[in-house]
Design goal:
Blueprint: E1 4-6, H1 15-21, E2 29-31, E3 35-36, H2 37-42, H3 45-49, E4 58-63, H4 67-77, E5 84-89, H5 94-98, H6 109-121, E6 127-135, H7 141-152, E7 158-166, H8 173-176, H9 184-193, E8 198-202, H10 208-215, E9 220-223, H11 226-229, H12 232-235, H13 237-242, H14 246-249, H15 254-270, H16 275-282, H17 292-300, H18 308-316, H19 321-324
Parallel strand pairs: 1-2, 1-9, 2-4, 3-4, 4-5, 5-6, 6-7, 7-8, 8-9
Helix pairs in contact: 4-6, 6-7, 15-18, 17-18
Domain DUS-like FMN-binding: 6-299
Active site: 91
Organism: Alkalispirochaeta americana
């Protein structure tokens, strides 16, 4: 089991972010944005599912409430070569609730079990699930344990638990990431009570120390928005968690990361893509370092009239040279 992952985040963990993240970590599990089964079955599959080979290991997160449709979505995704599939049973947004998927599924554990069974029937890759501790109506640890037991009976073995309940009425998705209190101890207890299951924790993981502290109790840790706000965090994971020091041996620096992104940017723009698709994931590359504001301004403001291959170099020039060349790994 891969012990660290970057959470699926709508409008954030798209293929451009994932390619950028792979310049910083080779071992961390990455997730797609949440994709509905209906979109896969009826929509532009190439646009939704295609990814760069460098993005492995990669999990496709699906959302839906129809077992047949989810099974078909997995079947259609198989040729793309994902490493695993994940069912979203944790998103609390109103739009998701209207589709009867995400966190509201926790109110119907037998249905979630059927969804997972259907997904497993369509692939020999691992099928996993991401969920909350519970809902406002079922907030007890015992409710979560019963939910997990119901799903584990399908053969699913990896559970990613956002260590908060979901409040489906009265709180926005953003508030649901901060207002319900964190309950790390309940996730630790789940691992103690079900040692044969692989338990991963999610919720306010902001540093390498947080990752290491959680790994003393659990099988894996999922990093959320910290991976976007301060991407340099990812560069410390391969060595500290996986014992893989290849990037360190290669002398990984922010300057090298920028240089590695230039061919990707050129190719994207040659096919009609916007430079901002690449710039947005890179905004936090210099977070906390001198020149960070200039770097962000260079990527998010009015772009100079330069060829695509020169735009990143132009922004990089605003950062002190010694900061550009600092070791990341």
């Amino acid at each position: 089991m891969i012990p660290v992952s970057v959470a699926p985040m709508l409008d954030w963990t798209n293929r451009h972010y994932r390619y950028f993240a792979r310049r910083l970590t080779r071992r961390t599990l990455l997730y797609t944005e949440m994709v509905t089964s209906a979109a896969v079955v009826h929509g532009n599959r190439e646009g939704l599912l295609a990814f760069h080979p460098d993005e492995h290991p990669l999990s496709l997160q699906l959302a839906g409430d129809d077992p047949d449709e989810l099974a078909r979505a997995v079947e259609l995704a198989e040729p793309f070569g994902y490493d695993e599939y994940n069912l979203n049973a944790g998103c609390p947004s109103e739009r998701v609730q209207k589709g009867n998927f995400g966190a509201c599924l926790m109110a119907d554990p037998p249905l979630v079990a059927r969804l997972l069974q259907a997904m497993r029937s369509a692939t020999d890759k691992p099928v996993t699930v991401k969920h909350r501790i519970g809902l406002e109506e079922t907030p007890r640890y015992e409710d979560m344990l019963s939910f997990v037991d119901t799903l584990a009976a399908t053969g699913v073995r990896r559970f990613t638990v956002h260590a908060r309940i979901a409040v489906l009425r009265g709180l926005s998705p953003k508030q649901n990431r901060s207002v319900p209190p964190l309950r790390y101890d309940d996730v630790y207890r789940l691992k103690e009570d079900r040692p044969h299951l692989k338990i991963e924790i999610n919720g306010q993981v902001r540093s390498l120390q947080d990752v290491q502290d959680h790994l003393k109790h659990l099988d894996a840790v999922m990093i959320g928005r910290a991976a976007f706000a301060d991407p340099a965090l990812l560069a410390r994971l391969d060595g500290a968690v996986f014992g893989d020091f290849r990037l360190q041996a290669e002398g990984l620096t922010r300057e090298k990361v920028v240089e590695q992104m230039i061919p990707y940017l050129e190719d994207l723009c040659s096919r009609g893509g916007s430079p901002r698709w690449v710039f947005t994931p890179m905004l936090g590359l210099f977070a906390g370092r001198p020149g960070a504001r200039s770097w962000k301004r260079g990527l998010s403001g009015a772009l100079p009239d330069l060829p695509p291959e020169q735009l990143l170099g132009h922004a990089l020039a605003s950062v002190p040279r010694d900061v550009q060349k600092e070791s990341l790994a």
